[in-house]
Amino acid sequence: MAGSSHKSGTKPSLRLRVTAAAETIVRGGHPWVFAQSVRAQNRDGETGELAVIFDRKDRFLAVGLFDADSPIRVRILHAGKPQVIDAAFWERRAQNAFGRRDGFFDSQTAGYRCINGESDGWPGLVLDRYADTHVLKLYTAAWLPRLDVLAPLLARGNRLVLRLSRNMQEAAANRFHAHDGELLLGEPLAGPVEFLENGLRFEADVVRGQKTGFFLDQRENRRDVKALADGREVLNLFSYTGGFSLYAGDGGAESVCSIDISELALAGARRNFALNADRPAIARCRHETIQADVFDWLRQESPRRFDLIVLDPPSMAKKESERAEAIAAYTKLIAGALARLNKNGVLVASSCSAHVSATEFFNLTLEAARKTGRSFVEWKRTGHAADHPATFAEAEYLKCIYLRS
User: Fold this and answer.
1) Quick count: other Cβ atoms within 10 Å of Cβ 83?
2) Is 250 helix (H, G, I), strand (E, B) or coil?
3) Which residues contact 295 (CB under 8 A, 6 or more apart)?
4) Are 5 and 91 in contact (CB under 8 A)?
5) Pick from 242, 179, 189: which is nearest to 214 by CA?
6) Mutual orientation of helices 243-250 and 219-228 as an angle, nearest 10°?
7) In whole angstroms, what is the distance from residue 89 CA to residue 76 CA?
8) Is 204 inside any structural domain?
9) Which segments within 198-321 are labelled E, that is strand?
10) Residues facing 204 on adjacent strands
11) In terms of domains, do 71 and 91 share one?
12) Number of domains in the chain
């Protein structure tokens, strides 16, 4: 039978039964059980406790973390034969996740994902490393009662900062006294954390920045942009702190224009360029920052054109009901970017919206290119980096396409 290091007084174990369809889905390896799939439970559950799921024949099916406030009512930790969930279980699971990254990175890269949620067996939890700092991002409050036990295991001797999904911050503060950006372990931070990525120096605001402070999932695409940048005039739309911009500069770009709506992000981009001013190509590259809404900026009439354009917007669809609107937004952005692209130029278009499939995104990009009346050749398509595995459909969010005119 499944056990737990998380006690709930003298209450009996939380036992659930789910619909036949949910049974099939869980047996197939899907890590979520939705609230509407729960057909019976022996008592009210508390967020953070273990829920043991039994099948129609009263046999053990799975065990997971219960979240009383989430549509995802149970996040599966283990399915199949009964499994004790104790300190040794967490140790093994952490070692497995860290072990999967062994050999991925050399000494020139100290920023990467150590645990990628459900796909590493830690549903609703991600862990990123930035040099001597680890950042723990939670998407469910179900982990909060276990932080005291898990924090030392996940920190691995480093500083550990807690980040919380926006939709759970209020509940986390009121019920668990946990706050976004708080230091869980290690020495206090004096400012942004500096780290290496492919030999380039970056800073990450791990306390207040987007995601865990940086977009680590675009590492390989940034490296491809560097390889394409030599001698080009480059435009980076939705630049954030200039990751693509810096790689383009290091790749020999004549100039880079970074555009973002946030002046705070653009200031970070300028600091990242300054951190690498000792690299000759970056020192030669003209870097311009423009604070603007990208949609508005692309609508402006301007003769200015670029040889390489990177379009990496934020997620346009946080939920399925926003999918159609997201597709329309992507179509406008891509058409606007193509209108600014020189002959023999390259467009690098990316989407991080899980509710817009890769097929949909690639097709709308190719259709926008066709409508220009110009000839474009598809160079490559990319997806998730190795440290960001996706083992089920809902986890597949990142896709990128490269078009040459």
Assistant:
1) 16
2) helix
3) 329, 332, 333, 336
4) no
5) 242
6) 40
7) 14
8) no
9) 200-204, 233-237, 255-260, 286-291, 306-311
10) 193
11) no
12) 3
Task: Compute the distance between CA of residue 313 and CA of residue 351 in angstroms, rounded to an integer.
Answer: 7
The distance of Cα 172 from the centroid of its chain, to the nearest Å, equals 21
Residues 90 and 96: their CA atoms lie apart, in Å, by 10
Residue ranges making up the domain that contains 73: 14-79
pTM of the model: 0.92
Amino acid at 326: A
Average pLDDT score over residue span 324-332: 92
Under 8 Å between Cβ of 317 and 325: yes
The pLDDT of residue 57 is above 60: yes
Task: Tell me the pLDDT tens digit for each residue of 91-123.
Answer: 999 999 999 999 999 999 999 999 999 999 999
CA angle 187, 142, 356 (to 5 degrees): 100
Phi, psi of 358 (to 5 degrees): -60, -45
Q: What is the C-alpha to C-alpha distance for residues 270 and 202, in angstroms, rounded to an integer? A: 11
Residue 186: alpha-carbon gap to chain centroid? 24
- Type of residue at 243: G
Lowest mean pLDDT among 4-18, 82-96, 286-300: 4-18
Rounded CA separation 354/395 (Å): 7
Q: Which residues contact 288 (CB under 8 A, 6 or more apart)?
A: 255, 256, 257, 258
pLDDT of residue 176: 94
- Residue 9 binned pLDDT confidence (cut-offs 50, 70, 90): low
Does residue 109 sit within a domain?
Answer: yes
Residues 239 and 331 in one domain: yes
Alpha helix positions (H), 340-380: 358-371
Token readout for 385 is 């980096």
Write down the pLDDT at residue 319.
Answer: 76
Structure tokens at 397: 């969010």
Q: How far is Cα 330 from Cα 238, in angstroms, rounded to an integer?
A: 13
Per-chain mean pLDDT for the chain: 94
Dump pLDDT digits (tens) for 244-275: 999 999 999 999 999 999 999 999 999 999 99
**What is the model's pLDDT at position 3?**
42
| Residue 55 and residue 178 in one domain | no
